[in-house]
Amino acid sequence: TVFDCSILPLAKVHNRAGNITVVTGNETLPFPIRRIYYLYDVPGGEERGGHAHRGLHQLIVAVSGSFEVMLDDGKNKKIVRLNRPDYGLLVTPGIWRELFEFSSGSVCLVLASEVYSESDYIRDYDEFKLIKS
Ligand code: TYD
């Protein structure tokens, strides 16, 4: 459910020359990292996402700038604003998500538990609702 999609504070190594945040699959995260991708150059007003995954676990991080994530488990919805590189949003399987309100220059980093597979996507909201009912 959306209540399992929690904000995960990430370790920050800080000194006067700046910060480093390290994420390790299976150690920091409850899943192995099999893929990394990032969204950037999202034009103002555009939305991303608009789908659910059948089996994929993800950690979503605003490594630069900010954006909002709407999560929907078919019953409950919540909106989370991400705007810090040392916090991630865990998204469990079976959650419809929409990303919007990208600030200019923002970068959305995604750490994912599986390699890309189109068959893992549910891109039709009616189908999603049917599966969830
Ligand atoms: P999609 O996941 O729908 O984007 P978003 O959720 O950010 O709106 O992916 C957009 C396109 O990129 C789609 O045609 C599939 C392709 N894609 C890959 O080829 N590999 C990947 O790992 C990802 C995430 C997307």
Automatic annotation (TrEMBL):
Which InterPro entries would you find in this protein's record?
QdtA_cupin_dom, RmlC-like_jellyroll, RmlC_Cupin_sf
Signal peptide range in chain numbering: none
- Domain Sugar 3,4-ketoisomerase QdtA cupin, which positions? 4-131
What's the domain of life for this entry? Bacteria
One protein family per Pfam: FdtA
What this protein is called in its record is: WxcM-like domain-containing protein
Gene3D superfamilies referenced in this protein's UniProt entry, alphabetically: Jelly Rolls
Please report the organism this UniProt entry assigns to the protein: Algoriphagus ratkowskyi
